[in-house]
Design brief:
The complex is a heterodimer of chains A (257) and B (221). By secondary structure, chain A is mainly alpha-helical. Chain A is built from 11 helices and no strands. Chain A has one domain (6-256). Chain A has helices at residues 6-22, 28-51, 61-83, 85-89, 100-128, 138-165, 167-177, 180-183, 195-201, 205-217, 228-256. In chain A, helix 2 (28-51) packs across helix 5 (100-128), helix 6 packs antiparallel against helix 7 (167-177) and helix 10 (205-217) crosses helix 11 (228-256). Chain B has 2 domains: 1-67 and 142-221, Rossmann fold (3-Layer(aba) Sandwich), CATH 3.40.50; 77-140. In chain B, helix 5 (155-169) links the parallel strand 6 (143-147) and strand 7 (173-177). The radius of gyration of chain B is 18 Å and the shape is globular. The chains are: A mainly alpha (257), B alpha/beta (221). The interface between A and B is medium-sized, with 25 and 25 residues.
């Protein structure tokens, strides 16, 4: 019942609708998706190029911060959007033909694709500005995106449920996430941290995502700590729990909360 | 045809548990227009959502023979930034209908003129209702669920809407909620009255209306 031939059609209808309503009224909506990472990279580059002689890896500050900011924002944006999926599609779910899963998948799909376009455009632009010919390991980069996006889906799906039942969780979650920017290795490498700190940082899935991204961009960077299966585990557990309970309770969320 | 088997539905409110249906077994026959009467807050709209499948039952089951529509009459699913045509196309897509054919049908039916290609936020509530009704009339269902379709435009438009609706349901059925007893009398073949968790079915609409009005008087006293 959940996955039949209608599902792709319904999901594409939802994607088209979100595209034309979010980005349709003005181009500004779409530009914002590019502006946020570009501004973040520019600020980090400006700030740290005064303090440091060389970036932690390679010789371009902008490229180094891009390899941190882009996967980080990809995760942040997609998980945030997915966690609002049911709220966002609430009026539509009065069509029995649409299920909450359609709403969650459509939201994930559109925002994941948007983020991938942003990342490739910004990365492409930065790499063209390099003096040296970049050696990019696309397999490694795609693994990094797969890690970021699956973790975003898991967190988003679980939060979709939790935000509905515990509205205060939304605030707590926002506060808990504030240090994420500092501890995900956006402006440092895991390897340069003291051993004691590494023990704790290792458990942050985002530090693995960003490390994996740098493995793909810097041929000399080993990133030996990066453990993709740990991130996929951190993605699968909340994804399964979120979808399981949403499946059971989404009608209650829609009608009786 | 829609069958309820031992259906129970209640929900929590601030004033305690509210019972919509208590262990109800009933069959809504196909090919008929069935009016659904009940006081305000008796749970008529909840009942339509149960039949549509967008709300869960507590226990028991609902067996649906053939396709069942969404509760028609609500325009809440329309996006204010999309035009009438775009909103129609969206519904066509999710129901697997031909998008262009439905968009043309709705344009014809609703007589919205140039408004049809303007964002919905510019619409009056009457225009929204016309759009909602037009879209649902353009989709084929075996059972139409209709929630309070009233005041859809002027008399000429209402006549047309009623004519189209009657031709639609000559080959299908409908379950209709309305507070207008005149509308129930003119549109419905049979009727059910929902009151304090009990559903009473009447083959004769006038009997149902009399029973419903007696319930209303009892409550006032």
């Amino acid at each position: 019942m959940m996955f039949d031939l209608r599902t792709p059609r319904v999901i594409s209808a939802l994607v088209l609708r979100e595209m034309s309503t979010t980005y349709g009224r003005s181009a500004a909506g779409y530009l914002w998706a590019f502006a946020e990472p570009i501004a973040g990279i520019a600020i980090l580059t400006a700030a740290f190029s005064f303090m440091l002689r060389d970036p932690p890896l390679g010789n371009s500050f902008a490229l180094f911060y891009a390899t941190g900011m882009l996967p980080f924002l990809m995760y942040m944006t997609v998980s945030g959007k997915v966690s609002q999926a049911i709220q966002f599609s609430r009026p539509l779910l009065s069509y029995p033909r649409l299920t909450f899963l359609d709403a969650v998948f459509a939201r994930f799909l559109l925002n994941a694709i948007t983020q991938l376009v942003v990342v490739f455009t910004v990365m492409g632009g930065l790499l063209l500005m390099q003096d040296t010919r970049p050696v990019i390991d696309f397999g490694a980069i795609f693994l990094s995106f797969a890690m970021a996006l699956s973790f975003a889906f898991g967190v988003g799906a679980l939060n979709c449920l939790l935000f509905a039942f515990l509205p205060s969780w939304q605030m707590i979650w926002a506060v808990m996430n504030r240090p994420a920017f500092l501890i995900s290795g956006i402006f440092f490498t895991y390897d340069s941290m003291p051993a004691l700190l590494q023990k704790f940082l290792w458990f942050n899935p985002l530090i693995h995502v960003i490390g994996q991204m740098r493995i793909g961009v810097y041929p000399t960077y080993a990133g030996a700590y990066v453990t993709p299966w740990y991130v996929f585990l951190c993605a699968a557990i909340p994804a399964v729990a979120g979808i399981f309970f949403l499946r059971r309770y989404h009608k209650k969320i829609l009608n009786e909360l | 045809m829609i069958e309820f088997r031992n259906l129970t539905k209640s929900y929590r409110t601030d004033a305690g548990r509210k019972v919509v249906l208590d262990n109800c077994t009933i069959t809504f026959p196909s090919g008929k227009v069935i009016g659904l009467l009940g006081r305000n807050g008796a749970g008529k709209s909840t009942l339509l959502r149960l039949i549509a499948g967008t709300q869960d039952v507590d226990s028991g089951e609902i067996i649906r023979h053939g396709t069942v529509s969404y509760p028609i009459g609500f325009a809440g699913s329309f996006h204010p930034d999309l035009t009438g045509a775009q909103n129609a196309r969206f519904v066509a897509r999710i129901y697997g209908a031909d998008t262009d054919a439905l968009a043309d049908y709705v344009m014809d039916f609703t007589e919205l003129g140039e408004f049809y290609h303007m964002p919905l936020r510019t619409y009056s509530s009457g225009m929204r209702a016309r759009l909602a009704f037009g879209i649902s009339m353009g989709l084929p269902f075996d059972t139409y669920l209709i929630d309070e379709v009233t005041s859809v435009g002027d008399q000429a438009f209402r006549d047309k809407a009623e004519r189209v609706f009657k031709s639609k349901i000559s080959s299908a059925g409908a379950i209709m909620v309305s507070h207008g007893m005149g509308q129930i009398r003119s549109m419905c073949d049979e009727a059910a009255v929902l009151d304090r968790g009990k559903m009473t079915y009447f083959d004769n609409v006038n009997d149902a209306i009399a029973f419903h009005e007696r319930n209303m008087r009892e409550q006032q006293r």
